[in-house]
Amino acid sequence: QARLLIRGNIMLRQWLQKFWPSKKNDVSSVKILIIEDNLVDARMIKKAVDLCGFSALIAYDGKNGIAMAQAHKPDLIILDYRLPDMNGGEVLEALRSTKETSTETVMVLTVFDTSEVVIDSFIHGADQYFTKPISVASLAKQIKAMLRQPHED
Predict the structure, then answer these.
(1) pTM
(2) Which H or E run contains 58?
(3) What are the DSSP E strand ranges found in 2-150?
(4) How many CB atoms lie within 10 A of CB 137?
(5) How far is Cα 62 from Cα 68, in angstroms, rounded to an integer?
(6) Angle, to 10 degrees, between the axis of helix 88-96 and the axis of helix 62-72?
(7) Is the Cα torsion angle 93, 101, 144, 134 positive or negative in sign?
(8) I need a surface site. Which of 44, 54, 73, 110 has the fewest CB within 10 A?
(9) Helix (H), strand (E) counts: the chain
(10) What is the mean pLDDT of each run of 10 residues along the chain (153 residues)?
């Protein structure tokens, strides 16, 4: 099983390298910003990012997440809707209103599955919406899919 996992990771890296030739085929240069206040959930999301071979940055509230997005220009932002200082709609609105972050690809990942929260997320510029719980493997697949279809302004 260990051989299959290693072989699978090598094959995954080779496949992903096709999508980032401008970054010298180094998938580890792909940055994912995780904006998540729950430590357990942040670690789970980081595991999925690690499984893809990407690097992860973590912000534990909305204001720091916005600042990190502006400073680091991540390839994907994974955003929890409920944060201690603001909600996901407010974070999305702030991201979409500045030139530095207006075209960032954003995946909302949250426990909320009400139509109000889903609609609010998309109105404010979410590119995709998923509910927790989600397995690490499924999340890794969604992350790869999101990076193949970046946000377009």
Answers:
(1) 0.79
(2) strand 55-59
(3) 31-35, 55-59, 76-79, 106-110, 128-131
(4) 11
(5) 10
(6) 30
(7) negative
(8) 73
(9) 6, 5
(10) 49 58 58 96 93 93 97 95 95 94 92 93 94 90 80 49
CA–CA separation, 80 and 30 (whole Å): 20
Tokens 């991201």 found at: 95
Decide: 95 and 102 in contact? Cβ < 8 Å.
yes
- 106-123 in b/e form (b: 16+ CB < 10 A) is bbbbbebeeeebbebbee
CA dist 56 and 44 (Å) reads: 12
Nearest CA to 140 out of 5, 21, 22, 25 is that of 5
On whether the CB atoms of residues 108 and 121 are closer than 8 A, the answer is yes
User: Among candidates 13, 55, 6, 3, which has minimal Cα distance to 34?
Assistant: 55
